[in-house]
Amino acid sequence: MKAYGMDLSVNFCGIRFEHPFLLSAAPPTDDLDMVRRAFDAGWAGAVLKTTSVEGTPVPLKYPMISSTDLGPQRVASLGNIDLISEHHIDVVERRVEALKREYPDHVVAASIMGSRQEDWQTLVQRLEAAGADFIECSFSCPQGSMGERPGAMLAQSLAATERVAGWVKAAARRCPVVIKITPQVTDIVEVAQAVQRGGADAICASNTIPSLPGFDVATRTPSPGLDGKSTYSGLSGPAIKPITLRTIAEIARAVPLPITGTGGPTTWKDAVEFLLVGARTVQFATAVMHHGFDLVEDLVDGLAFFMEDAGIEHVSDLVGAALPRLRGHEDLPGDLRARSEVTEALCVRCDLCHVACRDGGHGAIQVDSDRLPRIDEERCVGCGLCVRVCPTGALHLKVERCAQPS
Amino acid sequence: MVQQVVAGLSCLVPAQAVAEAHRCLMCHDAPCTAACPAGVDVMHFIRALRFDNPRRALEVIRRTNVLAGICGAVCPKERLCEGACLRNALRDPIRIGALQTFAAAHEMAHPRRAARAGGPSSDAPAVAVVGAGPAGLAATDALVRCGARVTVFEAREAPGGMLAYGVPEARMPYAFVNAEVSPLLARPGVELTPGRALGRDFSLDDLFSRGFRAVFLGVGLWKAARLAGVSEVPGVLHALPFLEAAARHARFHGPPPAVGPRCLVIGGGSVALDSAEVALRSGAREVEVVCLENTDEMPATREDIAGAWQRGARFFNRRRVTRLQRGPDAFFLIETIGIRWKEPGRFVPDNAEDLPGTEARLVADTVIVAIGQAPDPDVVRALSGLKRDARGLVQVDPETGATSVAGVFAGGDCASGCGRTVVASVAEGRRAGLAIAAHLGLRPPTGPYEPALPRGVVS
Ligand SMILES: Cc1cc2nc3c(=O)[nH]c(=O)nc-3n(C[C@H](O)[C@H](O)[C@H](O)COP(=O)(O)OP(=O)(O)OC[C@H]3O[C@@H](n4cnc5c(N)ncnc54)[C@H](O)[C@@H]3O)c2cc1C
Ligand SMILES: Cc1cc2nc3c(=O)[nH]c(=O)nc-3n(C[C@H](O)[C@H](O)[C@H](O)COP(=O)(O)O)c2cc1C
Ligand code: SF4
User: Fold this and answer.
1) Which residues span the domain enclosing B314?
2) Domain boundary at A265, A294, A325, which?
3) Buried-most residue among B177, B223, B302, B361 (CB within 10 A)?
4) Using CA atoms in the order A58, A63, A68, A74, what is the torsion angle rounded to 10 degrees?
5) Given B50, B76, B109, which residue is the final one in a domain?
6) DSSP B197-220
7) Cα of A290 to ligand 3 centre, how many Å?
8) How many angstroms separate the CA atoms of B399 and B402, rounded?
9) Is B22 an interface residue toward A (CB < 8 Å)?
């Protein structure tokens, strides 16, 4: 669709997306009618929820969802102890066929998980034959990969990642192969390199994060409680976005494979951040589970208006555009002198900046008789904490370059 | 610039707007939308604000209400969207109107760089819109969105209708009206011809012979309704001419309206309260409002009544004027009597019964009658070929705005009567605009984000 006359299309592994927003493998894509409604609402594509070969047991346990709030904001993060889809390849094959027939211009991808080489390869071949546009391999379910020890994810082993990526790639004739990795590793770059050595076409970064969302302290029950017991949840939603941005950036700086981003986006601005650190498309699960399929309108309009205002013609111009600005701490400029400044007209005199600097900074903000913050130029080191706690945007940093290099 | 423009409006600052948008529950199938005469998609516009997208918020509102910012400020929200907000159950409804005005003000401060692409083709059918009030402007918007060319004929020198010449400056700064209305009139395919009045300068037939394929009438009601026994007395003022003089003084360099120190306003609607406030601002020291209704029965909103009270107006409720004469020193002597409602809950003059023994006399230097508006006699003559009801209102098909004459449509106050709202006129104008487009074989804009057409408008 042309939103406000802007072309938002992107190319990912040779596949054209109308715009960069698709649904990730999760409950919103585990039902044929839901995906139809999602496409009607305007999503450019969907990765159907992870499937496996017939006969694979999928012992789902309920309740499976938990969450954390942040003040009045519900679902700051979402936790789940879900497994892959209960629907096996025979069902998912038919869904792929139906969707490609009804929505030839939408991108339909299938997500797979197997244990034996034979299973992985059958899954690819059958879904490719059904018409899938690409195959995503889940190497990162927090409840563990099939065939590994309980809770261990394939993508936590470099050898397994390379080997299984190789199996899948060897079986695929037409479809690009995407490996969905986990951020829960010591060195994400090594994992990405293993994916590359395995011959896969792209990386999906970076899934939920193993977590313990919390407890009912009165009953000591962890969340989600199943008869008072629980296990570790995969954490998704707004809270994990900063971690996802970091993993995508690290991978994009080290490995030339295209990236599809997943983990925490809600708004068009979040999505633009994903693009800036190197994702070509952005996948959504939690935000859609919270707000519904028509969230895509906010995303498309927001991206179109942003590009119009910034004079950007192609989405691809944004992809990785911020990477040159990321570097090691040792390469950051050491000759900046920053000082906090107050815009009195915006200050409501809550003096939160004073408290933060007094107890978490350098005691550089005093309060005058009018309750106005006064910055002590000598004591202020320019850390920026006060700017972060100010509720009205009344503080900013004035940054200068020192005359003498340090 | 926008700071000045919205100075008279209670416009939220960005931090407040974001906080307010976060309070919205984003209800499914939200009742606020059902309660809006224009069907503004409240939940989606607020969600756009919450998700850092004020421009989309405005686009969402303008899909069904082209006067987004104005309505956010002047709508009787407590009876419409905000009254329906489910957060009333928690006693703190969302300030929907303020958020709507915020979205419009944000766009004024950050105008779009690129102009809206295209415009109607040169062979697109031409439509005449008569009257540049809310109804005419909404019809114009709907028509250009469907690809028609529109010429707007406006009797007065500036667009806006009652928003320009009725609603006082203190309540709706004209700079804000202008900032919202002029981009619409500047769109490709739209032409405004001010100072041209139907009946005085041209007839309906003239429009058709000049090649217009259809006509929308949004001429409003500009003749003051008269109160028998009062209106005839020399020197008695009527609300509309009085407010128009005040508006011309505040906005278009007209002379100030003349008001004496003691002023009496007759009527209980928002026009009466506006007259009272303008009188106070124009030099009256005491302003008294006499009306049939109690404060909770008055057509004016609670907010407006409280505002008028705060600024010094005093009320004589459940009372009517029985006689008015000129006193010796050019002031007026007014006789009044208390009333009760014969049948409870029906607050109309013929249901009022006098209560003997409650007579009271008043004196005033200025008397303003504010009991409603009626069709302008010039317009009535010009529209003699159209079916009209007993009050002189143009009869229309409520679904499409079609009149009894093929190709002529109408909406807003001239078809629906006085005592109504800007937003209702916008809704009627838009509906008629879409119906005209359909009548001319134009296809309404389609796409995943276009709202459903109103009932009765077939494409
Ligand atoms: C004092 C006052 C206060 C109000 N306050 C509110 C409020 O707070 N909130 C609210 O929702 N509503 C309010 N209203 C009601 C609201 O303003 C009207 O319902 C609304 O403006 C009607 O829109 P319209 O387009 O039908 O007519 P109008 O606004 O009356 O516009 C008609 C236009 O047609 C032009 N015109 C008239 N005759 C001719 C002709 N012969 N040829 C060409 N052009 C012609 C007029 O100059 C005018 O520009 C108020 C009304 C008044 C009078
Ligand atoms: C309930 C639930 C089930 C999920 N199931 C799968 C799955 O079967 N396969 C998979 O690859 N990812 C699965 N995910 C992960 C999502 O696809 C997505 O990568 C993750 O939730 C992070 O993105 P988000 O913050 O947009 O939700 C699931 C997520 C949730 C919340
Ligand atoms: S979200 Fe739906 S399926 Fe889940 S518990 Fe609630 S009602 Fe049941």
Assistant:
1) 226-371
2) A325
3) B177
4) 110
5) B109
6) -BTTTB-HHHHHHTT-SEEEE---
7) 12
8) 8
9) yes
Q: Note whether B91 and B197 are same-domain residues.
A: no
pLDDT in tens, B401-434: 999 999 999 999 999 999 899 999 999 999 999 9
Q: Which residues pair with A47 in a beta bridge?
A: A109
B154 Cβ inside 6 Å of ligand 1: yes
Mean pLDDT, residues B84-94: 94
Residue A41 clears pLDDT 70, i.e. is over it: yes
Contact A303, A272 (CB under 8 A): yes
Question: Residue B364 forms beta bridges with which residues?
Answer: B332
pLDDT band for B112, please (50, 70, 90 cuts): confident
Query: C-alpha angle A81/A87/A92, rounded to 5°?
Result: 125
- At residue B459 the predicted structure's pLDDT band, cuts being 50, 70 and 90, is very low
Q: What is the pLDDT of residue B1?
A: 41
Report the 10 Å Cβ neighbour count for A313. 10
Instruction: Please give the distance, rounded to the nearest whole angstrom, from the Cα atom of residue A63 to the centre of ligand 3.
Output: 10
Which residue, B314, B299, B359, B308, is CA-closest to B334? Answer: B359
Q: Residue range A319-331: average pLDDT? A: 97
pLDDT, averaged across chain A: 95
Contacting B with CB below 8 Å, chain A residues are 1, 5, 40-42, 72-73, 266-269, 291, 294, 297-298, 301-302, 305, 308-309, 311, 391-393
> Considering its fold, how many domains does chain A have in total?
2
Q: At residue A378, what are phi and psi to the nearest 5 degrees?
A: -75, -40
Q: Does A406 reside within a domain?
A: no
User: Predicted ipTM?
Assistant: 0.89
- State whether B190 and B282 are in the same domain: no
Instruction: For residues B131 and B66, state if they share a domain.
Output: no
- Say if CB B324 and CB B314 are below 8 A apart: no
For residue B118, what is the nearest residue in chain A, using CA coordinates? A5
Pair of tokens at residue A339: 């000082």
How many distinct helices (H) and strands (E) make up chain A? 11, 20
A161 and A211 inside one domain: yes
Tokens of B4: 């000045």
Structure tokens that stand for B383 in this block: 């529209």
What CATH number corresponds to the domain at position B191? Answer: 3.50.50.60
Please state, in angstroms and rounded to a whole number, the distance separating the CA atoms of residues A142 and A213.
14
Q: Do A302 and B26 touch (CB under 8 A)?
A: no
How close are the terminal C-alpha atoms of chain A, in Å? 53
In contact, A325 and A71? CB cutoff 8 Å = no
Ligand 2 close to Cβ of residue A233 (< 6 A): no
Residue in the block written with tokens 């995303």? A299
Report pLDDT for B203: 96
Residues in chain A: 406
CATH for A62: 3.20.20.70
Q: Whose CA is nearest to atom 14 of ligand 2?
A: A26
Q: Provide the 3-class DSSP secondary structure of residue B174.
A: helix
Strand order in the sheet with A233-236: A65-70, A73-80, A233-236, A209-211
* B357 and B422 share one domain: no
For residue A107, the enclosing domain spans 2-325
Please answer whether residues B165 and B221 qualify as being in contact, where contact means their C-beta atoms are separated by less than 8 angstroms: no
B145 and B178 both lie in a single domain: yes
B391 and chain A: CB distance < 8 Å anywhere? no
Would you tell me which residues 324-353 of chain B have a C-beta closer than 8 angstroms to some C-beta of chain A? none
Question: For residues A138 and A113, is the Cβ–Cβ distance under 8 A?
Answer: yes
The residues pairing with B445 across neighbouring beta strands, listed in sequence order, are none
pTM of the model: 0.91
Q: How far is CA A80 from the centre of its chain?
A: 15
Residue owning tokens 């109504």: B420
Q: Residue B52: list chain A partners with CB under 8 A.
A: 267-269, 302
A235 plus A173 within the same structural domain: yes
| Cα–ligand 2 centroid distance for A285 (angstroms) | 6
| Listed residue (A376, A377, A386) closest to A352, CA to CA | A386
